[in-house]
Design goal:
alpha+beta, Alpha-Beta Plaits, 2 domains, 4-stranded antiparallel β-sheet, 4 strands, elongated
Length: 288
Amino acid sequence: MNGRKKSTSIIKFLYRYMMLLIGASLAAVSIELFLVPNMIIDGGVIGVGLLLNNLTGINFGVLIFVINLPFLYAGYKHIGKSFFISSMIGIIFLAIIENFLLAISPVTNEPLLATVFGGLILGAGVGLVIRHGGSLDGTEILGILLSKKIPFSVGEFVMFINIFVFGWAGFVLGWEQAMYSILTYYIASRAIDGVVQGLSGDTKAAIIVSDAYEEVANAINHRLGRMVTKVYGKGGYHNLDKEIIYVVITRLEVAKLKNIVHDKDPKAFITIMDTQEVHGGRFKSAIH
């Protein structure tokens, strides 16, 4: 039994760092073969590194490592050792692989193609690193730490930093390149969300308030094949006890859920929300 656990731990360890390597490799390919040749940047530390590389000629891999060091130290102190190690390895992989790509010709010299495909590949790479416990960009680490002390969310803090990064890019690279850079950042951020959330990004959470909750719950279970959770609440108008139904479904099952509920209770109140991730339980996505 101990041998099996040890073997499983080794496989998980190797898989994790293989994913970090693949993520860093994708980010390096995007930066060296799409963005840099077309004078396009991303946001955050990667964007600052690309701008400094353009201004000083210092190797991007060295810049990204040095700039991230204080953020990694802060991450080690406040987020954890595992996060620090994964981030450090990801950044080292990025710096090393980026150097190997210096001698390779760019994939395209068309700025719009570089923006779209560079953003997608960069987002996929950064997303893989985040999904497996690390980070290639110290601004998000700083945002997480400062969000406890300032009246801004992590996203708002990162956006604030990027306003200065892209403004700087406008003066250094030209405003047209800055606009391409903003588009790259947007595409990359959407790709990161897709990779980090995986198929869970296609799930929805539904809250149903109905006087016919037993019939509705049974119908969802039998016709949709979804297990439901009953939450006990109280109506705010009549002050009557209510059983509220909570269920997680896929995006493609939303219309069917509405039909099932309205068949049983046309007056039912339904709220459908996006979910970030779904783990555990008996939920299995219908999308394969």
